[in-house]
Structure formats: structure tokens, C-alpha cells
């Protein structure tokens, strides 16, 4: 199987698409408008991939969204995030195993195509792409509001457009520019979270002057450890999954890495440590130090905790970090969505226009479409806000389940196929106890989604997300059958 060497090989089960990992020939289709380049630039180093993987796992959802999840589950949020972390680790190992032999910028959409046919890749790719322009719009407005708090004279809409323009310019310049921006911005997030956890643990131990040791009172004194029951844990799990969405970007970026195998292996080996320390560590500090049902925790759990510890200027510092986190998220949203659209166009599941590559090796047309959709949503939401937009964002958020279910299902098929051909997972990658843990992950995801449909609080969005997925899948099936039908 080729590894992006300029010759697209074909396998019978790809539906006529180039085998995963072979981006060159199809990528060059229609690229003349970009100056003659035929492939995406492979200029990301291992350090870029490592920080991209951390940035994907630690976004604005941790700093803000976790407050809503705490209100939904109480201290049981630790169960919700532990369960989600376990699923994330397994999903990432599945992706790592498939990416080691098939590094491709289309990643899991390509794996779905290889496993089940064109319709599966079509469905996975388009569902993944559609959420990113909406997410970019939301993050841009939230980032602009932070800046507006610092400089009230700047209108929110103008600042939001400026932030979108910044990340667009970075992504259009080169993939190396994207990697460098992520590298340094993620360092800020990592340093602050590590410091937060360290200070919090000192306070929990009763060693911080002026802050008595809380013991376990906040875990059990306000309605018990599960004040909202298991239903609250399930709903919070959905929010946790949305927070973790973005971890898969590392396998998309691997398609543009100079040494994909080393980059994937390194990021996979540290995923368990990252999600445990950054998420479970910080959330444990919060629910140990503060009552879960306090208004301040629901609004901004990190700021509430820092204020409780008597750290002056905590809100200002946190806003700076939150700004950096959101800028990092926006940067990755443009990157991931453009690469997925590029892969869809390359595999003839989107107009060939979006497979064009600039002289710098970036899919500029795919970037511009994604950003254009985001800007349109942004302007509509700023000048004509509607609750329908929030509903749409929630629906696309639920499709994270669809993406992960598709990854697990593809791993079952491709994992068996690879093992039957004598291919074993590289050291440090692959799912343990295959296929049992893959089956367990798939069943857990399906079960959680079924519970979301049953619970009245999440039923509407879950059903609408399922309906949207079915509609896209039917479109993919129609396209597959149309192209498979011999011409008269």
C-alpha cells in the first residue's frame, strides 16, 4: 500500500477511491488553480503533532463547558469524564492502529470507506465537516466577547471577524504555520492547567495558607455523590464527549507529518496521561474545593476555584488563557474541517474544486469555503440572533457519537482484515484484547446514545442528530449506487 508517494493504488473495497494514505494523484485533480502543487505539504514535525494532540484534547470546553457538566451531574462528573476518557483512549488507539498503515488526511472517513464502502466515508466525512464552521462561529463570538470586555469600544462582530481572519491567514500561509501556532498556544494552556492542579492539590491537602483542607465534604454533603442520579451522569457524558472532540485531529494531521509513524506512536502513548491529568485532575480539584451546586461553579469553575483560593487577578489571568484556548480551538477547526473537505473532494464525494492545493501545499479552496460558512453564520447570529442556531450547534455536537461509533465499527472490520493478512499493530499503538475492547467501546457508545434518546432532557437533539445522520447516509448510498450503475 502506497504512503502518499504519488501513485494512487486501488483496492476492491474502496469503491474506486485511492487507498488510504495515497493522496497524491487525487489531490492534484484540479489543482492547477493553486499553482501546480499536487499534494498536501508534509512539513509538520513530531513536536507539532504532540502539541496538536494535546490542544485537541484540552480546549475551551474544559474551562467553560465543564461548569455546565458539573451542574448536570454533581461530583458524579468524575464518573462521566472517567468513562469518556476511557472511551477516548480506546478510540485514539483504534485510530493510531489504522493510521500507522494508512496515514491519510481524510483519516476516519477514509477508514469508513475502506471498511464499509463509499457511503460510509461520505457520511463520516460530511457529518464531521458540517459541525466545524458552526463551532468556529461560536468560538469566534465567545473570543470576541472576551476582547470586548477588555476593550469595550471594539464591537463584538468586528473582533470576531478579525479572529476568524487571523486563523484563516495562518492556515492559508502553510501547514507549518498552523503547527507552530498550535505549539506555542498549547504551551500556555498546558502550563496554566498544570499550575492550577498543583495549587489546587496543595489546597486540598490543607497546606495553602488561609484555605482549610476541605476533606470529602463537598463530594457528599450536597445531595450525595450522585445528586442527579445516573441520568445526570449520562447527560454530562455527552458534554464530556463534546469537550474531548478534537483529539482525533492528530490522525488528520499525521497525513502531513514528516514522520507520521513516529508522531502517531508518540501521541498515542501519552493520551492516557493527558486526559487523566488535564481533565480528571482539574475537575477533581474543583469538586473537592467547592460545592458543585454553587452558581459560580456553573458559570466559570476555574475562576470560582481561583477566587476561593484568594488569588487576586485570577479572572483576568483566566480570561487570557481562555482567549488562547479559544484561538487554538479556532485554529484547529479551520485546519481539521479544510482537510476533511479536501479528502471528500479527492475521493469524489465533494466538488473537485475543494481538492485544489496552493503552491504552499494547503487546500486553500477548502479553507475558504469553511471560513465563508462560518462568517455567514457569525454575521447572522450577531445581527439576527436565533435559538435555532443554538439548537443546530447542539445537534451537530451530538454527532460526535456518530463519528466515534463509525471509528469503532471501521476498526472492527479493518483490524480483522489486517490481522488476517498478517499485519499486527505497531508497538505502542492498537487496542488491547482485540476485538473485545473494540466491541465494548462500540456497545458503550450505542448504549449512551440510546439513553440520550430516552431521557427527555436530551431526546430532541439526539433524535434530530440521528435523523440528520440517516439523511446523509442515504445521500451517500444514492451516490454510491449511481456511480456503480453502468452507463446505458
From TrEMBL:
Gene3D superfamilies listed in its UniProt record: Amino acid/polyamine transporter I (1.20.1740.10)
Annotated Amino acid permease/ SLC12A domain residues: 48-455
Record has tRNA-binding as a keyword: no
Location within or outside the cell: Membrane
GO cellular component terms given for this protein: membrane
InterPro entries: AA-permease/SLC12A_dom, Amino_acid_permease_CS
Record-annotated membrane-spanning stretches: 49-70, 76-96, 108-130, 150-173, 185-208, 228-250, 271-290, 310-330, 366-383, 389-410, 431-456, 462-479
Protein name: GABA permease
Organism: Streptomyces laurentii
Amino acid at each position: 500500500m502506497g504512503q502518499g508517494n504519488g501513485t494512487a493504488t486501488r483496492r476492491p473495497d474502496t469503491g474506486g477511491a485511492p487507498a488510504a494514505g495515497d493522496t497524491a494523484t487525487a489531490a492534484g485533480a484540479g489543482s492547477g488553480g493553486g499553482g501546480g502543487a499536487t499534494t498536501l505539504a508534509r512539513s509538520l514535525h513530531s513536536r507539532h503533532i504532540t502539541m496538536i494532540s494535546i490542544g485537541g484534547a484540552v480546549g475551551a470546553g474544559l474551562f467553560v463547558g465543564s461548569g455546565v457538566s458539573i451542574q448536570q451531574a454533581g461530583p458524579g462528573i468524575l464518573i462521566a469524564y472517567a468513562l469518556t476518557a476511557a472511551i477516548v483512549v480506546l478510540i485514539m488507539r483504534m485510530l493510531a492502529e489504522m493510521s500507522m498503515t494508512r496515514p491519510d488526511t481524510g483519516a476516519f472517513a477514509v477508514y469508513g470507506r475502506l471498511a464499509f464502502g463509499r457511503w460510509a466515508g461520505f457520511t463520516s466525512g460530511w457529518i464531521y465537516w458540517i459541525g466545524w464552521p458552526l463551532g468556529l462561529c461560536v468560538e469566534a463570538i465567545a473570543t470576541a466577547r472576551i476582547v470586548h470586555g477588555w476593550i469595550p469600544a471594539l464591537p463584538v462582530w468586528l473582533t470576531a471577524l478579525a479572529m476568524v481572519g487571523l486563523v484563516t491567514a495562518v492556515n492559508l500561509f502553510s501547514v507549518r504555520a498552523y503547527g507552530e501556532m498550535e505549539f506555542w498556544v498549547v504551551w500556555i494552556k498546558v502550563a496554566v492547567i498544570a499550575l492550577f492542579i498543583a495549587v489546587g492539590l496543595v489546597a486540598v491537602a490543607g497546606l495553602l495558607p488561609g484555605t482549610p483542607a476541605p476533606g470529602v465534604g463537598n463530594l457528599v454533603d450536597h445531595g450525595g455523590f450522585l445528586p442527579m442520579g445516573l441520568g445526570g451522569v449520562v447527560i454530562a457524558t455527552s458534554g464530556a464527549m463534546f469537550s474531548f472532540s478534537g483529539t482525533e485531529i492528530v490522525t488528520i494531521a499525521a497525513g502531513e507529518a514528516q514522520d507520521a509513524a513516529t508522531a502517531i506512536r508518540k501521541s498515542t502513548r501519552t493520551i492516557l496521561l493527558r486526559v487523566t491529568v488535564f481533565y480528571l485532575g482539574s475537575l477533581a480539584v474543583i469538586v473537592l474545593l467547592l460545592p458543585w451546586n454553587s452558581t459560580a461553579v456553573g458559570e466559570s469553575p476555574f475562576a470560582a476555584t481561583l477566587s476561593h483560593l484568594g488569588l487576586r487577578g485570577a479572572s483576568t489571568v483566566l480570561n487570557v488563557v481562555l482567549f488562547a484556548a479559544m484561538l487554538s480551538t479556532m485554529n484547529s477547526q479551520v485546519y481539521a474541517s479544510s482537510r476533511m473537505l479536501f479528502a471528500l473532494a479527492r475521493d469524489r464525494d465533494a466538488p473537485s474544486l475543494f481538492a485544489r492545493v496552493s503552491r504552499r501545499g494547503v487546500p486553500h479552496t477548502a479553507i475558504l469555503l469553511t471560513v465563508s460558512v462560518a462568517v455567514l453564520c457569525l454575521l447572522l447570529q450577531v445581527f439576527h440572533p436565533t435559538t435555532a442556531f443554538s439548537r443546530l450547534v447542539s445537534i451537530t455536537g451530538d454527532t460526535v457519537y456518530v463519528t466515534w461509533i463509525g471509528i469503532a465499527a471501521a476498526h472492527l472490520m479493518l483490524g480483522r482484515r489486517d490481522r488476517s493478512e498478517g499485519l499486527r499493530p505497531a508497538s505502542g499503538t492498537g487496542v488491547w484484547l482485540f476485538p473485545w475492547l473494540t466491541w465494548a467501546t462500540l456497545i458503550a457508545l450505542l448504549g449512551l446514545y440510546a439513553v440520550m434518546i430516552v431521557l427527555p432532557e436530551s431526546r430532541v437533539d439526539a433524535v434530530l442528530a440521528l435523523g440528520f445522520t440517516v439523511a446523509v447516509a442515504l445521500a451517500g448510498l444514492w451516490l454510491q449506487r449511481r456511480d456503480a450503475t453502468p452507463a446505458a
